[in-house]
Write a structure and sequence with these properties.
Layout (H helix, E strand, L loop, with lengths): L12 H6 L2 E6 L2 E7 L13 H17 L5 E12 L6 E11 L3 E9 L5 E13 L22
Antiparallel strand pairs: 1-2, 2-4, 3-6, 4-5, 5-6
Length: 151
């Protein structure tokens, strides 16, 4: 679904590897479904914290982009709280709390199949110009001020 999600339009190999499924992308909200594969578990046989942080990060980024789909975003900062083990099918719900021309302030919560909160994050993202699909290069992302609209 990532390749055809309205407004997403970019290929992220790591996200594809994890198997995230974008189920909502509109109005400052996103929802992503995810079931960890055996290789995504930690030594306690629950979803690895790094996979959960990626899920939170991507759900916040897509929530930010849902109002400005022609722009990309890069993570500036993220704070994560783990509340209980994440087992089985999970859903992350991201929300854009506030945005300026250049910045997005977001939050996301991961829920298990019983609807219990497993993890929560807040994040700040910077809007950047997106590369057209299929133009990935080995050059680093250019986030110079000339590349970003000003407030």
């Amino acid at each position: 679904m990532w390749d055809t999600a309205v407004g997403f339009g970019v290929d992220i190999p790591f996200v594809k590897h994890l198997g995230f499924e974008l189920t909502q992308f509109e109005g400052g909200h996103s929802e992503i479904a995810y079931t960890a594969k055996p290789e995504h578990l930690n030594s306690f046989s629950v979803t690895h914290g790094g996979a959960l942080m990626t899920l939170l990060d991507v759900s916040m980024a897509t929530a930010a982009r849902s109002q400005v789909p022609e722009m990309g975003v890069v993570t500036i900062e993220m704070k994560t709280t783990f509340m209980q083990p994440a087992i089985g099918p999970l859903v992350a719900r991201g929300e854009l709390i506030h945005r300026s021309v250049t910045m997005a302030f977001t939050q996301s919560t991961v829920f298990d199949a019983a609807g219990l909160k497993c993890a929560h994050a807040t994040g700040t993202f910077k809007f950047v110009k997106r590369l057209p699909t299929g133009t990935r290069t080995s050059n680093p992302l250019n986030t110079t001020s000339s590349n970003i609209p000003t407030d």
